[in-house]
DNA sequence: TGCCAGGCCCTCTTTAGGGCCTT
């Protein structure tokens, strides 16, 4: 049985911690061979207000955050929950920065490798009309577990997308169930290189 | 004052530009 992978999603007050944005909610699911085996989710309070358009998009209000536990407490629990598991996020460049920034404020290391479901889906579903998480979920007929733009629902959608891609690699391309290290290798290939690697296998199998 | 990300990826490219993706 492969080691667990932690699929994470943050809701935040903005696009980057480099400009003062902070996390407002974190959702994490632990997956093992495509199955969710554990979940963690919490709002968190940092004192940084949410811009109105983000509150309207997420449904997370400043009043909700004032009643939430402190970010330091939530992030310590999140770090314990993840442990040494390698991580996955939809547009990992975004979530990994908040993961590192929030843990750095606590003096905690954030050395887990991040695989990215956007990079992977661009390679595995090059003809998808969109690689936005919600639209890709609908395109593939995957379940929507809750309101989009809430951390746990988005983490669950990303986990389902990850499992669908692992399954496709296994079934269509004759590969073993890809572990996190193999996903990292696949996302580093250029899309055209990966297409050349995968298509002949698919063609042979479909004959 | 006014503006404010940044990495990926395609193409009418590579001495660049613009769309995508995340909040």
Automatic annotation (TrEMBL):
InterPro entries: Ribonucl_H (IPR013520), RNaseH-like_sf (IPR012337), RNaseH_sf (IPR036397). Residues 4-171 form the Exonuclease domain. The keyword Hydrolase applies. Pfam families: RNase_T. Keywords: Exonuclease, Hydrolase, Nuclease. SMART domains: EXOIII (SM00479). GO terms for molecular function: exonuclease activity. It comes from the Bacteria. This is 3'-5' exonuclease. It comes from Comamonas faecalis. The lineage of its organism: Bacteria, Pseudomonadati, Pseudomonadota, Betaproteobacteria, Burkholderiales.
